[in-house]
Amino acid sequence: MERETILHLSALELAKAIRKQEITSEQAVEAVLEKTDKTETDLHAYVSVFREDAPEIARKRDAFVREMPEGTELPPLWGVPVAIKDNLLLQGKKTTCGSKMLENYISPYTATCVEKLEKAGAIVIGKTNMDEFGMGVSTENSFFGPTIHPLDPTRVPGGSSGGSAAAVGSGSAFAALGTDTGGSVRQPAAYCGLFGLRPTYGTVSRHGLVAFSSSMDVAGPITRSSLDLAAIYNIVTGADDKDMTSVCAPSVDLLAMKQYSPKGKRIGIPKQLFSEEKMDQEILKAMKIAIEELESSGARIDLIDMPILDYAVAVYYILSSAEASSNLSRYDGIRYGYRASDVKDLADLYTKTRSEGFGLEVKRRILLGNYVLSSEHFEDCYRKAEKARDQVRSAFDEAFSEHDLLLSPTSPMVAPKLGESLKDPLAAYVSDLCTVPASLAGIPAVSIPVQSSTGFPCGIQLMARKFGEQELLGASYFHEKHCTSLERRGDA
Length: 492
Ligand code: GLN
Description:
alpha/beta, Amidase signature (AS) enzymes, 11-stranded mixed β-sheet, 11 strands, 12% strand, globular, disordered C terminus, binds glutamine
């Protein structure tokens, strides 16, 4: 198989080719590393690449395939090179979280979800760049410099898992894990023309995922196909003794996914997430096409009113910043990572370490978090936001009592130009409009790639009730296989 052909395979397609000995895992790893060598200087998808370890593991995987008796069942991602976001721990390797604070921090153990990927045969090829501690929409808030969009060097790949999306989009990994607190898997997947899944909160253990906002953090896959999403979801989910909020989830049946039909399904579109004023024209057009296509496949689609969603962005930023300010208090120059030098006393050590170790956006969140948790503002900010979160949850419960799925754009815009998202932090927060509601409610959501009217990728988002991944990924597969994009319809 040609190298370029290999690089376009999905993770499952590659696993199959390795199983059938049409290609070796070592060849796949070499192809990815060669591609990465070519693109990394411009793209900067990775913070670290494991040039030595990965081929060695691949050779072991290949030896096993050669020697295994006929009929042996191999784990689903045997020999497949994948990338993981740099806030997921991998024993013996650096976990920087895109921060100077953790620039030289070596992971003492491996995150449960990464361990599960490795057990499934995947080979971690490297750790991907991200907005510092997951805070951002463009991967420009990384201490190590921005990641660039794989299709357009003047644009950002989205964030905060922009490195993971750029790696998969450019052929530098067959799939990647990102983490999604308020949209950081779905939005970069949408910007880069890929699939991204935010699983139901708690289905993926957070053990070894560096905490940003503990009540919303979930690791999720970014891939080239819906089946890859399902396969990785099945691998990484499960209750874990090391995370008391983790739960056992039913796995997704890939065969049943292929049988999915939208016929007779009721799909609601929250009108708060689909409006002329808040969205770019090209996104509205892409949504209209998705609606037409789902309707012509037999789905019943209606606009629904969820007024509380108008407050979702504010509620998300209050709660996530409150949790972040508490989670990030551990970086004090004593226990982890960076420590300032030339300090007078303990207070000076804290102040200097945190002033020098954290970037601007992280400091903004810590300030906001401390403000809403302060005794003067606790009741009118934090408490109110918690109550509003309950209302968001109830609004979704009500919506799902009558609908199988909810539909919206993933982001109100296509990937912005470099630098744009940094100009106005508030505008960047507002751009999370469509992704934060599912985060607050803890429900699963998928971003499915479609083309905008300019031909550039964007995403539509489907949301399902808790543990509704089967329905969600079935619909994603259906859309992938049966719905046409703008360009293919000739409407562009
Ligand atoms: N853009 C959101 C934020 O900056 C989401 C980040 C995330 O999901 N990690 O908080």
